[in-house]
Amino acid sequence: MNSVAVAVDWEHPVDPRPGPRLEHVRTYVSSGGRDGHLWHGVPTLLLTTLDRTSGRAVRTPLIYGRDAGRLLVVAAGTGGPRHPSWYGNLVAHPAVRVQVGTAAFAAWARTAGPEERETYWEAMTALWPLFDDYREAARPRELPLVIIEG
């Protein structure tokens, strides 16, 4: 079977559907990251993944934490029964693009192992206490904690 490499257009990703998330992304991008980095007082990043079905770049705003140069995000999906699509995308294609404030860079994402997840969970719920509520609502689904390294 022949495979053809297709260049990913990381510069023109698909953004969220109309609504508050799209407005957040537009503010973040139009200001070059000077505005929008803090959302309700919580730090957010823009994660761009390669959509596993369409092959297009897709951008998602997410709350994040930091540890030793790594970025931490939770695939909460507000406690729904399924993992958010961005998580499935990065599992299939771990090469991602990230914007944190005014800095934008290529990175790799991976799911934290059980020990890492346990280590970082408290830090993430300190940033956004609703993660604990989402975890309860999602049961039996476990909310993956993702580590992003540049």
UniProtKB/TrEMBL annotation:
<dbReference type="Pfam" id="PF04075">
    <property type="entry name" value="F420H2_quin_red"/>
</dbReference>
<dbReference type="InterPro" id="IPR004378">
    <property type="entry name" value="F420H2_quin_Rdtase"/>
</dbReference>
<comment type="similarity">
    <text>Belongs to the F420H(2)-dependent quinone reductase family.</text>
</comment>
<dbReference type="InterPro" id="IPR012349">
    <property type="entry name" value="Split_barrel_FMN-bd"/>
</dbReference>
<protein>
    <submittedName>
        <fullName>Nitroreductase/quinone reductase family protein</fullName>
    </submittedName>
</protein>
